[in-house]
UniProtKB/TrEMBL annotation:
Its EC number is 3.1.3.18. Its cofactor is Mg(2+). The gene is gph. This is Phosphoglycolate phosphatase. Mg(2+) binds at D7, D9, D163. The active site is at D7. Belongs to the HAD-like hydrolase superfamily. CbbY/CbbZ/Gph/YieH family. NCBIfam families: HAD-SF-IA-v1, PGP_bact. It holds the Pfam family HAD_2.
Length: 214
């Protein structure tokens, strides 16, 4: 059957609140005011290095302390990741796909440390046949290399499911269909993201995948 690879943050897990708490814990340590969650959403998706650069640019954090600030943010980020909730219907959808023999993969820009905390917290150590974190390879999404690496390990190309323009661009670069989850960490209109199908309820995902497999 056609493999299915998922993004993580904003696709399977509702992680924006935890990421915002981690950022604001760092700001509080520096005696600075918190930033709103909707602002943090604009920092997410390209990995921790761009995240901290955007946070520094928007606040009074000292760019000269970047390395130390990133290390402290990662400590808070990993702690916040341990209790990240799933979006409604995710567990059931993944169970249905696995019961049908679909090979599942994970391709995320989330660093390996916080990713491990999420997978451990959810009991997902064996959920996916292949996993690539943001620091697994030398390149990250939207470069297609991480996604293609996951598909190669699953035995063939299939469908990518994500929530952001980065995910859409990654799928397009990899030459695979993209299914957009519209309730994730999305900062642009749905119509501005190239996609083959879209959904807002995970109960609809298996049927969408069947139609794409055609």
């Amino acid at each position: 059957m056609t493999p299915v690879v998922f993004d993580l943050d904003g696709t399977l897990i509702d992680s924006l609140g935890g990421i915002a708490r981690a950022a604001n814990a760092l700001l509080a340590e520096q005696g600075l005011a918190a930033v709103p969650e909707r602002q943090v959403a604009g920092y997410v998706g390209h990995g921790e290095h761009i995240f901290i650069d955007r946070l520094i640019a928007d606040t009074a954090l000292d760019a000269g302390d970047r390395a130390a600030l990133l290390a402290r943010f990662m400590t808070h980020y990993k702690a916040a990741s341990r209790n990240t909730p799933l979006f409604p219907g995710v567990a059931e959808a993944l169970a249905r796909l696995k019961a049908r023999g679909v090979a599942l993969g994970l391709c995320t820009n989330k660093p390996g440390g916080p990713l491990a905390a999420v997978l451990d917290g959810l009991g997902w150590q064996s959920m996916f046949g292949a996993v690539v974190a943001g620091d697994t390879l030398a390149r990250r999404k939207p470069d297609p290399a991480p996604l293609l690496h996951v598909f190669d390990r699953l035995g063939g190309r299939g469908v990518y499911v994500g929530d952001s323009p980065i995910d859409g661009a990654t799928a397009q670069a990899a030459g695979v269909p993209f299914v957009l989850f519209t309730q994730g960490i999305r900062t642009v209109p749905v119509q501005d993201i190239a996609h083959d199908a879209a959904f807002d309820d995970f109960a609809d995902l298996p049927g969408i995948l069947d139609r794409l497999a055609g």
